[in-house]
Amino acid sequence: MATIELSNLSKTYAGGVQAVRGATFTIKDGEFVVLVGPSGCGKSTLLRMIAGLEDITDGTLTIDGRRMNDVASRDRDIAFVFQNYALYPHLSVRQNLAFGLERRRAYPSLLTSLLSRDYRENRNEESARILAKVDRAAETLGLVPYLDRKPRELSGGQRQRVAVGRAIVREPKVFLFDEPLSNLDAKLRVEMRAELRELHRRLKTTIVYVTHDQEEAMGLGDRIVVLKDGLIQQLGTPDEVYAKPANTFVASFVGMPSINLIPGRLHRGDLVERFVADAITIDLPPSMSAKAPPGPITLGVRPDRLRLGAAATTSPWRGDAQVGAVERLGDRTDVILRLGPHRLVARCDPRCAPVEGGTCAVGIDPADVHLFSDADDGDRLSKSD
Amino acid sequence: MKRRGPFLAHALLVAGGLLMVLPLVWMLCVSLLSPADAQAATVSRDLGRLIPTDPQWSNYADALAQMGSKRWDGFLDALANSVVVTTLVVAATIVSSSLVGFAFARTRFRGRGPLFLIMLATMMLPGQVTLIPLFLLFRSLGWIDTLLPLIVPAFFANAFFVFMYRQFIAQIPESLIEAAAIDGYGWLGIWWKIALPLCRPVSAICAVFTFVYVWNDFLSPLVYLHSDEQATLAVALNSFRNQYGGITKVNLLMAASLVTMLPCIVLFFAAQKQFIEGLGRGAVKG
User: Fold this and answer.
1) Which of A52, A100, A166 lies closest to B184 in CB terms?
2) First to last CA, chain B
3) Secondary structure tally for chain B: helices H, strands E
4) Please, what's the b/e burial string for B20-51 (b: 16 or more CB within 10 A of its CB; e: otherwise)?
5) Contact check, Cβ <8 Å, A103/B178
6) Mean pLDDT value across residues B23-50
7) B180 to chain A, minimum CA–CA distance in Å?
8) Minimal CA–CA distance to A134: which of A101, A173, A172?
9) What's the CA gap between B262 and B66, in Å, rounded?
10) Which of A121, B105, B163, B178 has its CA 20 to 30 A from that of B157?
């Protein structure tokens, strides 16, 4: 159980590369926080700084109020699950699980146990305790049949479980996961995701989890931290991040298929504000864009919010689009549309999917749009009520 | 057509193998001859008498009993000395070389690169160059005619094996080291619990080569040891030569030599794989 506070945490490598810049946020006790971003965004570096595997260039890190900047990894009471699992290849699963506990024995030496009976009894008792813990963890993770195998005799999913098991037997204050599922196949990944979520519900230990997969991040995190180029872009619950992306980067990173971004201009008339782009004109409700000055602007609309065919008839704005590729995915269908110069992706019900090569009515409801400034990674302009 | 290639290769290999085993067979034959036959077969080159028609197995007991100046004690002392020196040197070489290799591979410290080069450079110095300075050094320490000059240097690592360990340890994934560090181990713990067990192939090579080298080493014991009680087997064999270098009991010398070689031969059969691998590694040592 631990609260982790990051205050202005920065990492600059010897070559001058800034991997993490001024990361400031607090991870609450028992919270599951996911750091997510494209490769090279600094998410792993940030995690490794929390673990003590990377030096902190600037800023402070505290766990439960204790400053950790100069505390060695082993004294931070954390457990780390590596992307490649980092199982000790020469040790059996049982020994792998017990490895960290063996180091923390109160009665470590075999030699002393030869001389003192008390010591010997305590040592045996401690050994039994360690074995019991290992057995319990193995049971939790369904590893009992594999306890005497070496890591190379296990499948990817089993190795992954051992890696998690090695973390939980230690009963640390904080779990740190570095892309633990990225070496598994898609199906297993989804299964393990549910198991990790379940594990967290049961253990209620603070977890910091790194992934580049936005879906994994959304599915696992109580809160997610979106990073790009070492800077935190947004921090919030999965719902917040999806519904109110802080900028166009977050908007397009979160959600599959990616959000449609349409460059255009904002006109402010007497009565209404109006978004105007080639082939698209949308009157915005008065509540939408209070912060925005008239001028260039980017409009975002999620694929599942584009209305196609009959559904478009009730939309305040609608137009006719050329239908490009149609991807049938079973429970849903993704449609590529051409609307003037814009390429849009729509997600619709398979039963009312348009025909490839034809035309199709498309409608946008102003309530569904996000407005961003037109700069790179333009900030959100819509009111974040 | 298809068969001729392998057949030729095998014929060549068999011929080569016979050539290699010839000295050994010769030793075995001579060791079983009576003194007169042995003299005839070796000195007078009467090869017809080389085949032991009446094998003298007692030669072996006689040879071992007559080694050194005291009956049996000479052999037993020499055997004990060889065993002590070889065991300690093998263990010390593995421990010290892997520790140094681990440090060069895994820790960062100022001057690591230059230090590593300097260490490698010591391999280019032939042993004969350092023989006299080392002798003077050990004499000033009062270690002459003790086993210490043969054993102690092994605790200071062997440049070649350090190099082999470093290359091997550098290939261990960083995350294993980090995992052990998080599990609570310091550098020494990681070396002992992770690096050394994972280096078993290197350690096997190191053990095999060091064993053979030390067991057969003649020069160092000859230089540092004087008295019979301190002699190793390789030196003790010399007692079959007279003061002018001539050999009077060649059959006994061969019997004693064979016994002395025995551990190496057994080791070779047990660890052929490591020998070949070690030669391969040596070939690309760069």
Assistant:
1) A100
2) 40
3) 16, 0
4) eeeeeeebebbbbbeeebbbbbbeeeeeebbe
5) no
6) 84
7) 8
8) A101
9) 19
10) B178
Please work out, in degrees rounded to the nearest 5, the angle formed at the alpha carbon of residue A281 by the alpha carbons of A277 and A285: 120
pLDDT at B283: 46
Q: Count contacts between A and B (CB, < 8 Å).
A: 53
Give yes or no for B108 touching A (CB within 8 A).
no
The C-alpha atoms of residue B206 and residue B211 are separated, in whole angstroms, by 8
Q: Domain A248-373 carries which CATH code?
A: 2.40.50.140
Q: Which of A73, A84, A88 lies at the smallest CB-CB distance from B181?
A: A73
The reply to whether CATH 3.40.50.300 applies to domain A4-243 is: yes
What local confidence, expressed as pLDDT, does residue B286 receive? 32
Q: Give the pLDDT score at A316.
A: 87
Across A134-148, A158-172, A325-339, B30-44, least confident range: B30-44
Size of chain A, expressed as the number of residues it contains: 385
Give the 3-state secondary structure of residue A42: coil
The whole-number average pLDDT for the span B149-156 is 94
CATH topology of domain B70-240: MetI-like fold (1.10.3720)
Q: Which residues of B touch A52 (CB under 8 A)?
A: 182
Residue identified by tokens 């290999």 is B13
CB of A173 closer than 8 Å to CB of A197? no
Using DSSP's 3-state secondary structure scheme, residue B192 falls into helix
Q: CB of A53 within 8 Å of any CB in chain B?
A: yes
Average model confidence (pLDDT) for chain B? Answer: 88
Name residue A281's beta-bridge partners: A276
In a mutagenesis test of the B interface, which of A47, A53, A109, A182 is the best target, namely the one with the most B β-carbons within 10 Å? Answer: A53
Per-residue pLDDT reduced to its tens digit, A219-243: 999 999 999 999 999 999 999 999 9
Per-residue pLDDT band at B128 (split at 50, 70, 90): confident
* Banded model confidence at residue A290, pLDDT cuts 50, 70, 90: low
- Determine whether the interchain pair A103/B181 forms a contact, defined as Cβ–Cβ distance below 8 Å: no
Pick the closest to residue B30 from B277, B261, B256, B223 (CA basis).
B256
Q: Using CA atoms, how far apart are residues A32 and A189, in angstroms rounded to an integer?
A: 18
Name the residue of chain B whose CA is nearest to A77's CA: B182
List of E strands, B83-196: none
Closest alpha carbon to A133 in A93, A89, A101: A101
Sequence spans of domains, chain B: 70-240
Strands A307-308 and A359-364: antiparallel
Question: Can you give the residue ranges of every domain in chain A?
Answer: 4-243, 248-373
Put simply, whether A88 touches B (Cβ < 8 Å) is yes
Q: Say whether pLDDT at A271 is over 80.
A: no
The pLDDT score that the predictor gives to residue A43 is 95
Residues A185-197 have a mean pLDDT of 90
Q: Which residue has the higher pLDDT, A354 or B69?
A: A354
**What is the pairing mode between strands A206-211 and A174-178?**
parallel
